[in-house]
Amino acid sequence: MTRIISLTALVAALAASSAARPSPHTHVVHEKRGAISARWGDAMRVRPDADMHVKIGLSQSNLHRGHDMLMDVSDPSSENYGKFWTEDEVHDMFAPSDESVSAVKHWLASSGIHEIRITHSDNKGWLAFIASGNELENLLHTDFYEYVDSETGDKAIATEQYHVPKHIQEHIDYINPGIRLPYLRKRGAEARSKRSSISKIYKPPQTRPAPKFGPMSANTTGCDKLITPDCVAALYNIPPVSVTPSPNNSLGIFEEGDYYAQSDLDSFFTRFPSYKIPNGTAPTPAFIDGAKAPQQYAGGESNLDFMLAYPIIYPQNITLFQTDDSYYAAGYSEGFFNTFLDAIDGSYCTSCYAGECGNDPKDPVYPDTNSTSGYKGKLMCGTYKPTNVISVSYGGAEDAVPQYYYERQCNEFMKLGLRGVSIFFSSGDSGVASRNGCLGNSTIFNPGWPASCPYITSVGATKLPENRTVTDPEVAANDPAGHPYSSAYATGGGFSNIFGIPDYQADAVANYFEKHNPPYPYYNGSKLGENGGLYNRSGRGYPDVSANGDNIAVYVNGESSFSGGTSASSPIFASIVNRIIDERIAAGKSGPLGFLNPILYKNADAFNDITEGTNSGCGTDGFSTAPGWDPVTGLGTPNYPKLKEVLLNA
Ligand SMILES: *[C@@H]1O[C@H](CO)[C@@H](O)[C@H](O)[C@H]1NC(C)=O
Ligand SMILES: *[C@@H]1O[C@H](CO)[C@@H](O)[C@H](O)[C@H]1NC(C)=O
Ligand SMILES: *[C@@H]1O[C@H](CO)[C@@H](O)[C@H](O)[C@H]1NC(C)=O
Ligand SMILES: *[C@@H]1O[C@H](CO)[C@@H](O)[C@H](O)[C@H]1NC(C)=O
Ligand SMILES: *[C@@H]1O[C@H](CO)[C@@H](O)[C@H](O)[C@H]1NC(C)=O
Ligand SMILES: *[C@@H]1O[C@H](CO)[C@@H](O)[C@H](O)[C@H]1NC(C)=O
Ligand SMILES: *[C@@H]1O[C@H](CO)[C@@H](O)[C@H](O)[C@H]1NC(C)=O
Ligand SMILES: *[C@@H]1O[C@H](CO)[C@@H](O)[C@H](O)[C@H]1NC(C)=O
Ligand SMILES: *[C@@H]1O[C@H](CO)[C@@H](O)[C@H](O)[C@H]1NC(C)=O
């Protein structure tokens, strides 16, 4: 969205009136605004000769077909299974069509705005031109007003609704200036404060000091107290690496605002000598928009991710998608994930969706003028190739960002799936709640973002309870506050309020409701909390799968300690899939597996079904595990040999 700095000179002394202009019957209302904040007072009509910088976002083509196209390459029963698309093929399929471009240009020309005045973005995403106030009002059959934020003095131009010709409507995503007003800024010190408690980052629920662990020979005694690499291998029957890893299959790991420390990795490698990981082993940098790692003092997340992944995949490499310069990564931005997606898909930088063309005002702006040490380069677009597998241990609540913001990202995960990328997200550490609590009167379950996107594999957490061995069943991770972490922790799961139940899990979800109906009222229409309901019976269920996420041995800032969270589960599962891709390549097959859920749900017996435990939250016990898929541990934990057989023969 274009930022408007000072427009006072552009405004005529006319107060806003709500009288809607008549429009010809050939035209339709394209966008209409709802109520706005009382802070936007004193709206004045824009002057006829004011310069208006207009941007027309063009609709992506074929987005509504994206789901079916993804299933066509991801469903093992499809004849196109595994026939992934190139980056250009994906781009061409969804880019606004030439027909859209010419239809909109033709409309503009016939309204007196000739082609020579129009700038067209590289990937067809939008058209831009400068028009006078009068011209734009006539074009859109509306009146424009300049609004002033009574608290900050910020100004913005907008209208209540605008019209376009009927035959043009399908080609246009949105027009700016249009109905949108910018996010209301806070003032002074408040404006510079960090992301609030709606923080979107899962961190391990606080590492805790543990009995020091010394060098260990391979063994699985004590896995009920401390999960070492040997315990992970034993739980999921992961054999030692036996094929030469492919140079084209580095494991992708995303981090933001949290950094690994090399000395901690080295201490960890030294503690587990049987994995023969030499000191200095470090991820391959794919640093985005000024991000840098390692740093001297580690965060709990990055160390945890690498300490779990390396023992599973070494000597395969890890590619570290460290994102955002230190200013934005520290939380001085409400947006999340968009700069990462820009960096691995150039077309994401300018594609339009639901009124957003490229990044949102919530996202970091580069070059970064906010901080002297900030990244002064241009926003990275398509700088890196996505890896075959990407693990992300970050997320928040579905309602932490606007719905269009989340949907645009979820569509992007669909496009990455078409290109053969397998994406794993932690399911969250707050059970049926989210980090920022519950919905409605704090009783309605709050699903996770991006955990509930139907085009990613969401990974929940399990735990090996005290006195059990690695051959005993695990349970859903659910620890009350103080036992052992300072805050309560339960593996995230539930049902989306945004996305419907995808076909690949429809039978699994129906089976759960039929045989293990949760003891809570639910809603299934568009009204949150209808009938006193606590969850959306028609939403996408998550997680899809799970892996251990409790009592994990780590090294942080020179100390051995325990950590946990679904933050651990995602890299474990992703590492296993990465290993299997290496096995495929070694067997002479094409490597990438793309979006995995369709094949995983068809092969539930490749998992250790978890049938004990719940995911408490919102003052309830949450959902219960059950035989088969459940919204606590998904299909269960991986059984490497079985999963390998399924995915090697796919
Ligand atoms: C096995 O691992 C446990 C910790 O999980 C450790 O206390 C013990 O010393 C190890 N045993 C051997 C023989 O290394
Ligand atoms: C891992 O990275 C190192 C350093 O770039 C390289 O020498 C090695 O060949 C890579 N290994 C694989 C399996 O790609
Ligand atoms: C790696 O990928 C490149 C192209 O991206 C290809 O030329 C090469 O053969 C691949 N190497 C292996 C071992 O698959
Ligand atoms: C590896 O690094 C660790 C931690 O700094 C250190 O204790 C250990 O002696 C090093 N090992 C070698 C072989 O240098
Ligand atoms: C960053 O700077 C721009 C102008 O340079 C300002 O509009 C914006 O509010 C600042 N953002 C933050 C998060 O400080
Ligand atoms: C919210 O919960 C409180 C305490 O149970 C109750 O008194 C109040 O009426 C509820 N409000 C709504 C809007 O349901
Ligand atoms: C585990 O076993 C020990 C020793 O037999 C016993 O004291 C403890 O209560 C057991 N813990 C649980 C959770 O069963
Ligand atoms: C429940 O899920 C359905 C399907 O995605 C959706 O259409 C509906 O709006 C959701 N209800 C609420 C209240 O979010
Ligand atoms: C939606 O919920 C209502 C009441 O809880 C129930 O009668 C209806 O059958 C449900 N519909 C679906 C499609 O689940």
Automatic annotation (TrEMBL):
SMART domains: Pro-kuma_activ. Its cofactor is Ca(2+). SUPFAM superfamilies: Protease propeptides/inhibitors (SSF54897), Subtilisin-like (SSF52743). Residues 226-650 form the Peptidase S53 domain. GO terms for molecular function: metal ion binding; serine-type endopeptidase activity; tripeptidyl-peptidase activity. Coiled coil: none annotated. Keywords: Calcium, Hydrolase, Metal-binding, Protease, Serine protease, Signal, Zymogen. Residues 195-215 are annotated as: Disordered. It is found in: Secreted, Extracellular space. Residues 1-20 form the signal peptide. It holds the Pfam family Pro-kuma_activ. One of its GO terms (cellular component) is extracellular region. Ca(2+) binds at D609, I610, G628, D630. Binds 1 Ca(2+) ion per subunit. The active site is at E301, D305, S567. GO terms for biological process: proteolysis. This is Protease S8 tripeptidyl peptidase I. It comes from Talaromyces proteolyticus.
